[in-house]
Specification:
Layout lengths: L21 H5 L26 E6 L2 E7 L5 H13 L5 E7 L3 E4 L29 E4 L12 E4 L20 E7 L1 H8 L3 E2 L8 E2 L4 E7 L2
Antiparallel strand pairs: 1-2, 1-10, 2-7, 3-4, 3-10, 4-6, 5-6, 5-7, 8-9
Length: 217
């Protein structure tokens, strides 16, 4: 079982996070790599040229987000592929850290992982910043390892931004921003968490489910 963290490498059962600066030392970055299907990512398609909007229905409320296909086209195409396939439906936010981020898109309520497509190229750039309310892809310490897991920044997290094109400084790709429902993100970020016997930390005591992710009409 492998999982994705933000900004570093930490192997605790299913979590991977990498060592970093003080920001990253206290908040292990969202990481995670799932079992892959071996299929290639679908090509990016953006009908009409407008950025797509998705609705993330959770057990604690609804979040709406604009996906920046104009800034991170491969990443958005990847997220929409999982969305259209129903991959996210019924999964959970499995890692929640107040004043850091909430992470989901990989685990079921029983803490098993769904198979994923193969990893995608990391489109992180310095101008795509991990600010409060932005969506970004979780990954392992390998730069190009993101699959389905994503996170929503609960606050500005400059330690997760790209500072160089090196493995240590490559950063985490931001690909959208919450446009409605930050109050829901705040509620999720405030839930009580625990560490599981297998070492997975920051897991909500009560399941926070991703009921469904869909494109907005």
């Amino acid at each position: 079982m492998a999982m994705m963290w933000l900004a570093g490498v930490l192997c605790v059962a299913a979590l991977v996070a990498a060592g970093c600066s003080s920001e990253k030392d206290t908040k292990a970055p969202p990481g995670g790599a799932g079992q892959t299907t071996g299929q290639r990512p679908a090509p990016a398609t953006q009908p009409g040229g407008a950025n797509p909007v998705v609705v993330i229905e959770t057990s604690m409320g609804t979040i709406k987000a604009e996906l920046w296909a104009d800034k991170a086209p491969l990443t958005v195409a990847n997220f929409l592929r999982y969305t259209d396939e129903g991959h996210y439906d019924g999964l959970i936010f499995h890692r929640v850290m107040k004043n850091f981020m909430i992470q989901g898109g990989g685990f079921t309520p029983a803490m098993s992982q769904r198979p994923t497509h193969e990893p995608i190229k990391n489109e992180a750039r310095p101008e795509l910043r991990n600010d409060r309310g932005t969506l970004a892809m979780a990954r392992t310490s390998v730069v190009d390892s993101a699959t389905s897991q994503f996170y929503i920044n609960h606050k500005d997290n400059p330690g997760l931004n790209q500072t160089s094109r090196t493995p240590d400084g490559f950063g985490y790709c931001v690909f959208g921003r919450v446009t409605e429902g930050m109050d829901v993100v705040d509620k999720i970020a405030a839930v009580a968490t625990r560490t599981l016997p297998n070492g997975m930390a920051d897991v909500p005591v009560d399941v926070v489910q991703i009921v469904k992710v869909r494109r907005a009409q």
